Amino acid sequence: MMDGSMMGWSWIWPTLVVIGLVLLGYLAYRLVQNRRPGADTAAVAGPTSARQILDERYARGEIDDEEYRKRRDTLT
C-alpha cells in the first residue's frame, strides 16, 4: 500500500524524536544545575547594576526616601 512518495519522508519522525529527546535532556540538565545546593544565583543571573542594588536597598528599608532620590539622581 505504500508507494514511493511516502518513502522520502520516512526519516522525519525519527529525527524529530531525537531532537525532542535532546531538548528534554538539556532542560533537565539546566533544571538540576539551577537547583544544586550552593549554586550562586548572582553568578547565574549576571552582574547587577547600581540602580538595581539601590532599588533593592530601598525596598528592604535600608535607606529612606531622601537618600534614595539623592543617590538615584546621582546615578542618572
Structure description:
- The protein has a domain at 47-76.
- Helices cover 72% and strands 0% of the residues.
- It is elongated.
- The protein is mainly alpha-helical and 76 residues long.
Report the count of strand segments.
0
- Main beta sheet: none
The global form is elongated
Q: What is the average per-residue confidence, as pLDDT, rounded to a whole number?
A: 83
Task: Output the number of helix runs.
Answer: 5
Radius of gyration over C-alpha positions, nearest whole angstrom: 26 Å
How much beta, percentage-wise? under 5%
What order do the helices and strands follow?
Answer: HHHHH
First-to-last CA distance: 73 Å
Tell me roughly what share of residues is in helical segments: over 70%
Helix/strand-derived category reads: mainly alpha
Low-confidence stretches: none
Briefly say what this structure is.
The protein has 76 residues and is an all-alpha fold. It is built from five helices and no strands.
Short key terms for the protein model shown above:
mainly alpha
List the helices and strands and how they pair.
Layout: H1 4-7, H2 12-35, H3 41-45, H4 50-60, H5 65-75
Helix pairs in contact: 4-5
